[in-house]
Design a protein that fits this description.
The chain is built from four helices and eight strands. By secondary structure, it is of the alpha+beta class. The protein has a single domain (3-167), classed as Aminopeptidase, CATH 3.40.630.30. The strands form two sheets. The protein has a five-stranded antiparallel β-sheet with strand order 1-2-3-4-5, sandwiched between helices. It is globular. The chain starts with a strand and ends with a strand. The structure holds coenzyme A. The site of coenzyme A has 18 residues, from β5, α3 and α4.
């Protein structure tokens, strides 16, 4: 999978992407909705899980490159659960230095459209922790509305979430 948008390139991650991935996952501010920064091992496990998704599902979170700068974020489609329901979700996490420029919506719009087109998905979801206003605004800009409330158990914490979704 390789997709270009007006300003960005979405491509599969490789083992070499661990350093720029760490720049996102080790930032406590970027990782607030995930209950704090990941250490090196947690980041390596995140990358390994994502590479496994490419093998098992044929898709996953992709690296987002800003030409001339390098990898500034990750965005793509993954299999997730909203409550008990299996769904296709668009995920987006960007380095803090590259927030507030519209990159997340630009990349996530391309991933959403890829899911509709290539996977024939009737609906694409975004699971958003109820404290994550920036992410809610991305979901709204993707044309999504709130469909569900549910709780995610992650890193020993009960996290209330909203299930945003848009239909094809
Ligand atoms: C979620 C996240 C990706 C959103 O980042 P973001 O910078 O707010 O989103 P965008 O890149 O789409 O930028 C949108 C902002 O850029 C502004 N903008 C500036 N130039 C723009 C342009 N050319 N085009 C579009 N928007 C532009 C928009 O007005 C908007 O401003 P606002 O933040 O004041 O509302 C970011 O907060 C993040 O990485 N968080 C940590 C990880 C995370 O929680 N991910 C979500 C898990 S559910």
């Amino acid at each position: 999978m390789m997709t270009r948008t007006e300003r960005l390139v979405l491509r599969p991650m490789t083992e070499d992407d661990l350093p720029p991935l760490r720049a996102i996952l080790s930032d406590p501010v970027a990782m607030a909705a995930y209950e704090g920064a990941f250490d090196h091992d947690e980041s390596a496990a995140w990358l390994a899980r994502n590479l496994r998704r490419y093998d098992e599902d044929g898709f996953g979170l992709w690296a987002v490159d800003l030409p001339g700068t390098g990898m500034i974020g990750q965005c793509g489609i993954t299999r997730q659960f909203v409550g008990d329901e299996p769904v296709l979700e668009v995920g987006y996490l960007f380095q803090r230095a590259h927030w507030h420029r519209g990159y997340a919506v630009e990349a996530a719009s391309a991933a959403r459209d890829w899911g509709f087109r290539e996977l024939g998905a009737p609906t694409i979801w975004a699971k958003v922790r109820d404290t994550n206003i920036a992410s809610m605004n991305v979901a709204i800009r993707l044309g999504m509305t709130v469909r569900r409330r549910f709780v995610v158990h992650y890193r020993g914490v009960d996290m209330p979430h909203l299930g945003f979704a848009v239909d094809r």
